[in-house]
Specification:
single chain, alpha/beta, 5-stranded parallel sheet, 14 helices, 19% strand, binds 2-aminohexanedioic acid, ALDH7A1-like, aldehyde dehydrogenase (NAD(+)), Ald_DH_CS_GLU, NAD
Length: 508
Amino acid sequence: TTSATTPIKDEVRALLTQLGVPPQAYSGGDLIVHTPITGEEIAQAPRTTASATAEAIAQAHKAYLEWRTVPAPKRGELIRLLGDELRAALPQLGRLVTIEAGKILSEGLGEVQEMIDICGFAAGLSRQVGGLTLPSERPSHRMMETWHPLGAIGVISAFNFPVAVWSWNAALALVCGNAVIWKPSEKTPLTALATQAIFQRAAAKFGGVPEGLAALLLGDVSVGEQLVTSPLVPLVSATGSTAMGRAVAPRLAARFARAILELGGNNAAIVTPTADLHLTVRAIAFSAMGTAGQRCTSLRRLLVHESVYDTLVPQLKKIYASVVVGDPRDAGTLVGPLIDERAFNAMQKALEQARRDGAEITGGERISFAEIPQAFFVRPALVEIATQTDIVRHETFAPILYVLKYRELEDAIAVHNSVPQGLSSSIFTLNVREAERFLSATGSDCGIANVNIGTSGAEIGGAFGGEKETGGGRESGSDAWKQYMRRATNTINYGTELPLAQGVSFDI
Ligand code: UN1
């Protein structure tokens, strides 16, 4: 069911051209790019060499030294322009996200919308990155906080949100007076190249942006390693697997650099006896099957009260059996392909384990389209399982929803929290006691806890991130900007005496 009238490679070339990426940026290199829609090769991007990476880091540091002297509201103007350029590029970039990452068009466009939204947020923020004034214990003294830029910020992003994650980091980092060096996933260099071209257009309109302020490095883990180990990179924001975080975090800690880590999630929803089931079913469908289960916020575990289990689960099974899986460019499709064969194999392995654990599985099989044997489409899997076995506690980046039954909310919360990850969570209830309990200190232990909406699709205005193996970082809205700046506490004496704090006397 491929919709293409034009071969996909030609479409990619046309989109990249419209977005302002020259052919040499994605031809003749050895970073081979495939589209998950057909599995075919669509580009060969040149990799950034180790020496070019070192140069980009040094140049970004230099750019920061200059950029930090530009007033913050003026820096906000660059991000406002970036938002304008993204608005103009929305249809093309959204479609390129769909082709490169495999998410449906509406989600591809939605991802670019997140970029536009964070630009608006950051432009406004550029007039608010100020500190507190605090009372001093000494007469004729004043205490205040000043926020300063940090330096060149490293951003390591994943295939599933190939451009939005950069924008959350870049928009904040740049208004805060930093430079940004980006290493996107090896699977999605084209959307990164397009985003870089869009940024360059905003920079040209702004005029006088220091060279190398926003750098793009294409390559494998060795490029990431250079960012992680460089003394010129004071903060690395990394999105990916918990395994990646385990490799990155200790090395940053060893040199006392900062880390913002967005790692694995194993997000759950609790469906209580009073849940509005019509709304609940829709929320579950989007969170669990949307993006083919390849969001870090995807719903992976469903804890259903025994009184509604037999009403809800058959409805879900029907939807799982009928949801349209196919070419994400087609209007009717809701579930696109998995990113690659490895993702498919990991999904099958998890399902085999669940079956050994006694689960009853609906769906999960590969859907093969004869004309595209290299693509990995699957029917999302609904897995009814009696207890939370090891495989349920493990994040598999695929559309698998484990469904468990509960009797007491207390037990559901305990099961909910007894996984290593802590990103997103939801409760479906019309009972205010249950809702508030879930949001309280003794409820969900996640960085995101929702009521009557799903686990995925967070707005940019809130702080985004999670606890435990999710890594503890917060990106995007609220006061996440503070991580991209250093705080100085200033005490100013405007009197003629020198009283010491804590009443200490030191008379010479
Ligand atoms: C991710 O999957 O890495 O909350 C990010 C959401 C999106 C971001 C997901 N706004 O689902």
